[in-house]
Queue: 2 jobs
Job 1
Amino acid sequence: MKPFFSQSPSDAAKELQVDVSCGLTKEEAEKRIEKYGHNRLEGGKEKSLIQMILEQLKDFLVIILMIAAVISIFLGEALEGVIILAIVVLNTFLGVYQENKASNALKALKEMASPHAKVLRGGQIIEVPSSDVVPGDVAILEAGDYVPADLRLIESVNLKIDEAALTGESVPVEKDASAVLAEDASLGDRINCGYMGTVITYGRGRGIITETGMQTQMGNIAGMLNDTPDESTPLQKKLDSLGKVLGIVCLAICVVIFLLGLLHGMELFDIFMTSVSLAVAAIPEGLTVVVTVVLAMGMQKMVKCNAIIKRLSAVETLGSTTVICSDKTGTLTQNKMTIQKMYDASGHYNVSGTGYSPEGEITDEAGSTPASYPDRLIEGALLCNDATYDPDKQTIVGDPTEAAMVVLAYKHGMKKAEWEAKYPRVQEIPFDSDRKLMSTFHKIGDSITMYTKGAPDELLRRCTRIEENGTVNPLTDAKREEILGVNQDMAQSALRVIGVAYRLMDKADPSPESENDLIFVGLVGMIDPPREEAKEAIDVCKTAGIQVKMITGDHKITASAIGAQLGIETDRTVEGREINEMTDEQLRECVKTTNVFAR
C-alpha cells in the first residue's frame, strides 16, 4: 500500500472508504472510534500513590535504615528506632510530594490543550472534541485552527501550516492538496499533508483524517518517549552501591565482634546484642534525608525557572550532563520572525530589535540615521498584509512572515489600523503557491494603488520599472542583476527574503493579469533570531565542558547560520539524507565532531 502522500485525493478517499462530499455518518464514526480508539496521545503508565511510595522505599540504603529501625526497637532502643523510622517517612514524603506536584502540573498543562475540530459528517459541518475524530473523517481547516490528527489534504486555498512543533521549520509551509509525492518524500516536504498539533496560519482547506492518536507522527514521538526505560541516575547508583557496602560492613562488624566475644568467653546473647548495636550505630541515618532535601531544593529552583521535573532524582542527572542535544525553533531561537535587513534603490538598511517588540530603529549600513527612509517599502509591506498585531501584549494572529512586516512598520511609527483607515483595501488577489505573490488594492485619493509582495525572483519577472528616490525609472538589466545579487546575499545569511512592488491603476482589477508592469520598491530580509539567553547558556555549557548540538528540521544554510550566531562551533552541517546513508559506526564518529544537524 502506498503512503497517503503518494496517492491522489480520490485514491485516499477510496482507501479510507469515505465520500468526501458528505463525510462519515454518525453511526460509521462511532464504529471507527470502537475500531481505532480515541484520538489521544498516551503518556507513560501513570503511577499510583502506592507505587510512588514503594519507589521511594526500594533504595538499598533506605532498606538498611528500616532494618536498623526494627533491630533498634528489638534491642530496646525504641527512641532510636522511632527516629530512624521518622527519617524514612520524611524522606518518602518529600520524594512523593515533589513528584506528585510535578505530575499534577503536567496534567494541568494537558487539560489546557483540549481543542475541538470541525468535521463534515452526514453532509453537515459540526464541531467535535479532537479526541473524537477518526480515520476517514473530513476535517475543515481554517486559519488559527490546530490540525486535529494526521490527514491527507483534499482541498487547499492559499493554505499555510506552521509545522515548527513537529519539524522545527520556523516558516509556515505552503500546502498543495493536488500534489502527489514520491514515496521517499521527507516529513518536511510533504506539502499535501497536515499533521496533528500543527497550526494553520493562513488560508483554508479540507483533509481526510488518515491516522489518529498514537499512529500519528506526534504519536510516534510520544511512543518512543514512553518506551525509553527509566535508568538509575549516577547518584542513585552510588547510593545503592554505598548501601550494599554498608550492609557488608555491618555484617562484617557483627561477625568480628561476635568472634571476639566468643574468644573472651562472653554470653552469646550479650555478644549478639553488642554486635548488632555497633552495626546499627555505623549506619548514617541522616544521609538519605539530606540527599532528598538537597534534590528537592534543586527541583524548586528549576520550578522558579519554569521547568517541571517529573522525577526528583532527575535533578542530580543534570549535574552529570556531558552533551545537550537541542531543537532550534522556539528553544534556541525565539520562534518570532524578525526583519533585520532592508534594501531599496537608495541603499541598504539595518533594523534593530527582536521578536514582536515594537522597540527598534532603522539605520543605514554604518549604523547612522539614514538620509531618507524606505517609506514606500514599509507602506507596501504593511498594507499588503493580513496579519494582526497587539503591540501591548506583543502577540500576533496570522502568518509570522506578515507579522514581522507589521512589527517593522510599528518601529517606524506606522500603525496598521491607521494606515488601513487612511488607505482602505477595496480588492485583493490572495497568495497562492503557483504565483508566489499576494496583491491588495487600496484607494489612495482618486486612484487605486495595487501593492504586491512575494518571492523576489517571481516579483522581479513582473517588474518593468523601479522607484528611485521618489522617481519612477525603467528597470535596467544591470539594476535587475544588482537586486538578484542582494537577494542571494540575504538568502545566504539565512534570511527569508520578500520583495515588494506596486502599480498605479484607475480601478481595482483582481485578475492575475494585473500583476504585471509593476514598479519595484525593495526587499526585506527576516529571520527567526536566536534567544540572547540561549547564547549565554551555550557559553556557560562550554565553560562547564558540556557539548551543545543543534538538531533542526530547517534547511542546511539556515541551520549553519543560526548555529554560528549562537556560537555552536562545527566544521560541517549534516543533513538527514547523509545520516540515512551512514553505517552505525560512521554515525558514531560523525556525532563526535558534528554539532549541527539539519533536515
Job 2
Amino acid sequence: MLKKIQIIVNVAASTNFGERYDDALGINTFGALNVLNFGKKCDEVKLFLHISTAYVGGEETGIILEKGENLKRRNDINIFEEKRLAEELLSQLQNQCIPDKAITSSMKEFGLERAKMNGWPNTYVFTKAMGEMLLGKFKGDLPLVIIRPTIIASTYKQPFPGWIEGVRTMDVVLVNYGKGKLTCFPGNLNSALDVIPVDMVVNAMVVAMEVHYAQHQYSCETIYHVGTSSKNPLKLSDLRNLVHYYFTKNPWIDTNGQKVEVGKLIVVSTINRFFLYMKIKYVLPLKVFYLINILCCQRFEKIYTNLNRRVKFILRLAEFYKPYSFFTGIFDDRNLERLQRVAEERGVDLAEFNFDSRSIDWEDYIMNSHIPGLLNQGLL
C-alpha cells in the first residue's frame, strides 16, 4: 500500500458544534495530522487533499481570502497543550468515578470554553482550525490542497436533486419551523447565508485532485473556498420568504393528522433582543406555569416538561447558530475561479463536474429540491 498510493483524501470529521473536546481534538485536529503522517510514508504520494470548513477563521468580516493568514495570526495557540489539558480534565473526571453522561457533559462544556477563549465560536471550527495549523506546519514537501466549504446542503443535481442524509446545520431550524416549534430566531436579514450543495463540493474536490495531481508542485499549499457568498449570495431574508411560502403551500402534518399552520419567521436583529424576547414571551410565563403546576400537585408536569424542553432547545439552537445567522464575511473564491479555468483548459467536463455557484437558481433549489429532499430523505 505504501508503494502504490498517490493521492490521499482526508474527509473524516466530527461536525458536531458542541462535540466532546477530547473527541473533537482526536478527530478534527490530530486525526488530520495522523493521516498526514501516513501520507508522508507513501513513496509515490503526489497530493494530500484535506476537507476543512470556510469558518476556520472564526467570526470574520469583510472579504475573507483563500489563504492561511487568517490562521497564522493565531499561531500562538499551543495545540499540544490543548490536547494535554483535555486529557488532564478527562483523567480527573474519570478518577472521580462520576457517570459517563456527566463526563461527556463536562468535556463538551470544556471544548466550548476553550474555543471561545481562543476566539472561535464553537468546538467544531476551533478543532478544524487547529487541524489546518498542524497540516501547514508538518506537511514538509507534500503538496497540500485544502477545500473549505461553507454550509453544506443537499445535492443540486447528483445523484439526484435534494439528496441528503440526516438533519444538520440550517436544516435543524427549517424543520422545527415547519413543525411549528420555532417561531422566532436571531439573525441579520441582510446578511448572506453561505450555503453550498454537497455535490458541488464533491465536484470541486474531484477537479482539484485531477488538476493538482497533473501539476504536482512540491511543497505548495493551496486553499479553495467552495461557497456562494461571493458570486451568488442567498440572503437570509430571501430564505425566510421561500421557507414560509413552501410550508404555507405544503404544511407539515402532525402526529394527529392535522396541518400545522406557520406564520413568517420572526427574525430578531440582535442576540440580546432575541434573549429578551424569549424571556418575556416564554421563560417568565413558563416560570409562572411551574408554580401553578406545583400548586396543582404536579397535574401539569408533562406539559411543563415538554414546554421547558422546547424553550431550552430554542435557546441552545440560537446560541450555536448565531455566528452564522449574523455572519457578514464574504468568502473570496478567486483560487476556485482559477481552478475552473485550468480544468477547462485541460478538457475537464465542467458541466458534469459543476461547482459554479452562479448556476444555482435559489428559488427552484430551495422550493423543489432542498426542502422536499430534506423532508423525504433527511428525516428518514
